Amino acid sequence: MLKIDNCLFGYEDGHRLLASSLKLDGESASQLTLLSDLAPGARFGSSSGYWTGFPFPKLDRYALMRTWPAPEMPRPGCVWTHALLIETSLFEDLADLSLLRELARRPQRLDGLAFYEQSIYLPADTLAERRDYLSVPAGRAVLAIFNNLYGSDEGAIPIERPGDLEDEVFAIWSQQWPRLRRNFRFQTAAADEVGAARSPFDLRLQWPPSVSAAPPSLYQEEVPPWLSVAVSDLSSPPHELRRFLWQFGKDVKKQRGSFRPLCEIFAASLKLSGYQSGPDLVRSISSWFAAKDDAPTLKQSLVDGEVLPRCQLDVLTFLLTQDHGRAFPLPSTGGISRLANFWPEEADKMLDLAEYAISEDSDLALSITGIVLGLIPASNFWAVTKNFPKVQQRMIQGRPDLLDSDEILDLDFVSLTNFIEISPVDHPVGAGLVKRLLHRANAEVAEKVLQHFPTFAVNELISEANQSDSRALRRWFEVLTRRPSLVLSAQVMEGIERTSTLYLLGDDLGWLSPAVVQAGTEPWVAALTNAKNDLSRDDGDILGSFLISLAIQPGGRGVQQIFEKYFDRIHDRILQSYLPWKANDLLLPRLPNVGWRRNWDTGFRLRLATAYAYIQNQLDPLSFASLTSDGKTRHLLAEAARELDGGWRYANSIELL
Fold first, then answer.
1. Percent of residues, the chain, with pLDDT higher than 70
2. Distances in Å between the alpha carbon of 583 and those of 118, 505, 568, 611?
3. Do 619 and 562 form a contact (C-beta atoms < 8 A)?
4. Which superkingdom heads the taxonomic lineage of this protein's source (predicted)?
5. By the 8 A CB rule, do 106 and 184 touch?
6. Quick one: pLDDT band at residue 325, thresholds 50, 70, 90?
7. Between 537-552 and 602-616, two packed helices, what is the crossing angle to 10 degrees?
8. Dihedral of alpha carbons 247, 248, 250, 256, sign
């Protein structure tokens, strides 16, 4: 049972409080008495009375009064007024406030006041049964009330006769959300022009209409969207606007001032003709509810895409680029995830937002960037992001494999080198870049690729060299050998499958350059393991002479394999005087100086250098003995070994074989 207190006012030696179910202090009784008396300028005409409603914070109640004429009293102008003192919590439960009209009772005589000294109780099931709203047809009068309360019109509303618009007023009151309901000040008294002007209420009615009374300013064909949805909500179910107002009006700061903005937003959700949309609507919402704690429930639903989902992208754009959290809250995790619904229809708009967000240092910017970048398909990444360089850079930082695409061939070299630099160092995409850029890249791009992806790019370059020998490949090798450390390692060179590739590397590296000498024989020996000979005889002699020269000084791992592979061949060519001049140029400076009488004997100097290398590196004597199968050369090689300290072991190995 819901309790409603009430009291009665009427004439007894003046207008006064006659009975009450609630004990009232003097000040409260005086205020209520004043408002229960005949309204200034009020005229009853053929009507039976009028309604007055106003908040009464002193008692934490809302006062709803019904006033009737009392012609039976001895003094003209006397009235009866029954006041219902309603606890404000009732506004949360009662759907149709017109139900309260049924509780008003006009007294018949002064001695029948007991009813007003008792509280009125409403059964809870009565409320449950009365969930339907009072419906009123749309018309100029309804438009006038709405525009008077929430729009631009001011002043009293002219009516044709007393008692008009009571249903409309209660229907509009019922439409309001609870807090607005309990602050609504209205009176349905038909007052003359002077009385209407003196009324302190939000809603005032004037009768008879005067020449100066403003007619309703709106006609049906001129109704703006916000007013259209408000009027439609009064006339028939399902009353969706009412549910919207109750949900989002609960925490607005302004009460009447928020009604129209909420209706504007609802109209936009229905896509009515003339509604605001996109960025304009978002800016309006920010203006309507400027404080961060004004309409927080609505704003959270907006940024999360629950209300006006098609505008969520505009809301987040405004939040990130202009609002910066001054009015709007941050979206929830679920709200951010809804951004995916805009792809691909709003791809450009999303990418534009991400382009801005990438430069912002905030959780929101980070979340937006993550969502948008996660939606971009790799299959058409370059086409979609063509006009969004920051998005491209951020994507490539996280997914460098996107560079392995034919679209990079359309990039200018500045952009391409920039993308290479922001990729993780030595990522496997380096191999793909070599494949795609082999015949397109300039020296600067080639150097960036090889420098940034030293393992995969160099290995791929060598793999390409194993297949062919093109002019483009030679240009890449020229770039590669500018950084000898990239290639002069056993792990890289063991992938070489052709001696022509070794020759190309040796030539581009400057053969016995300081970097090559410092690296020693190990990388070359690793290459010889799998390399098949595809060189001409002269080029093969040049390569062999280079490798023997490298084995003589500084030596190192693999020296023995080099001598075993090339000594007999190069020595034989020297004895026949067929060694190419370039091979001679590589070999002679590395051979020992044996004085002017014997320096002419290049073969002797080679045998002596070979024996010395075996002794110095403590190589296998059996390997020394097997360097040649020619008897004469074996004899000469043994003689050279005997001339050196410690060489007897190697000389004996030949004689014992």
1. 94
2. 126, 16, 15, 20
3. no
4. Bacteria
5. no
6. confident
7. 50
8. negative
Is the pLDDT reported for residue 184 higher than 80? yes
**Tens-place pLDDT, residues 571-584:** 999 999 999 999 99
Q: What are the backbone dihedrals phi and psi of residue 482, each rounded to the nearest 5 degrees, phi first? A: -70, -20
Q: Is omega for the bond preceding 621 within 30 degrees of 0, making it cis? A: no
pLDDT tens digits, one per residue of 193-230: 766 666 778 888 888 776 555 555 555 457 888 998 99
- Residue 216: CB atoms within 10 Å: 17
Q: Which of 354, 367, 298, 352 is nearest to 329 (CA)?
A: 298
Which tokens is 634 given?
């074996």
Q: Which residue is listed with tokens 């410690």?
A: 646
Give the residues across from 205 on adjacent strands.
157, 190
pLDDT digits (tens, 9 = 90+) for 237-273: 778 999 999 999 999 999 999 999 999 999 998 876 5
Residue 30: CB atoms within 10 A of its CB come to 12
CA 299, CA 248: separation in Å to the nearest integer? 9
The answer to whether the beta carbons of residues 174 and 98 sit under 8 Å apart is yes
Query: Higher pLDDT residue, 122 or 129?
Result: 122
Say how far apart CA 315 and CA 303 lie, in whole Å: 6
For the ranges 275-284, 331-340, 396-405, 598-607, which has the lowest average pLDDT? 275-284
Tokens of 199: 């009324």
Residue 19 pairs in a beta bridge with 8
DSSP letters for 70-108: -TTSSSTT-EEEEEEEEEGGGGGT-S-GGGGGGG----S
Cβ neighbourhood burial of 581 (10 Å; 0-12, 13-18, 19+): exposed
Cβ atoms of 653 and 624 within 8 Å: the answer is: yes
